[in-house]
Specification:
Blueprint: E1 5-10, H1 14-27, E2 31-36, H2 39-47, E3 54-57, H3 66-75, E4 82-86, H4 91-99, E5 105-107, H5 112-123, H6 131-141, H7 144-147, H8 161-171, H9 176-183, H10 187-201, H11 206-215
Parallel strand pairs: 1-2, 1-3, 3-4, 4-5
Helix pairs in contact: 6-10, 8-10, 9-10
Length: 220
């Protein structure tokens, strides 16, 4: 018997929530979905001891947005990966949720097959973005605006634990493919981590990234 995958669905629009549940249930008989009409309901369920293998959440919600939900889950040491499915697919929210630990961002307009790939990737600990968002992220990383990005506040960690692993291997001169082999993650996931490290450190090249990290004492 195959292991059931428990998935929490979070959206404050009941019609979309019902549709999302139906779509995800159609992807695999092993997916068991629980629907929550608000982030606070989800948090309360987790605080009561409920565990999930994956949380799929909208980004824009009246009570609490997807980013706030991610931060609330982190504060409670919830280990479930979070996948954002949203009608908004502009770069700032995409980058912000990825910087804070989301395992992917899928537009609500995406085909079911794309959502299926995103769920599979998140369950394996890999970051997923549709090709069109990868392209936008790639362009943003090398744009002048990327250099002028504001540094994170003291309340936010400069570099997350997984990104630190990637950063140390970058400092050793490892290419993305080698890093993906060492950390047992996809090359696309490595690229996402590298891009986010660049943005956090306000650099656009690997050499500058390593130099800045050394200056900040991140590689001590």
């Amino acid at each position: 018997m195959s292991k059931k995958i428990n998935i929490a669905l979070v959206d404050d629009h009941q019609m979309f929530l019902d549709g999302l549940r139906e779509v995800i249930n159609s992807l695999s008989p092993d997916y068991v979905c629980e629907s929550y009409a608000s982030p606070r309901e989800t948090i309360a369920e987790i605080e009561s001891g409920r565990t999930f293998d994956l949380i799929v959440s909208d980004f824009v919600m009246e009570e609490m947005n997807g980013l706030a939900l991610i931060l609330a889950l982190k504060a409670r040491r919830c280990q479930a990966p979070v996948l954002i499915v949203s009608g908004i697919d502009t770069l700032p929210p995409v980058e912000k949720v990825l910087q804070n630990g989301a395992m992917g961002f899928v537009p609500k307009s995406a085909p079911t097959e794309v959502l299926g790939r995103a769920i599979s990737a998140a369950l394996k600990g890999e970051v997923f973005l549709p090709p069109e968002l990868w392209t936008v992220m790639e362009a943003s990383t090398t744009s002048p605006q990327a250099v002028d990005a504001q540094p994170p506040t003291e309340a936010e960690p400069l570099i997350g634990p997984r990104q630190m692993e990637v950063l140390r291997l970058v400092a050793e001169g490892y290419p993305n493919k080698r890093i993906s082999d060492v950390l047992a993650i996809s090359e696309n996931t490595v690229k996402t981590h590298v891009k986010q490290i660049f943005r956090q450190l306000n650099v656009t090249r690997r050499t500058a990234c390593v130099s800045k990290a050394q200056t900040l004492g991140l590689l001590d």
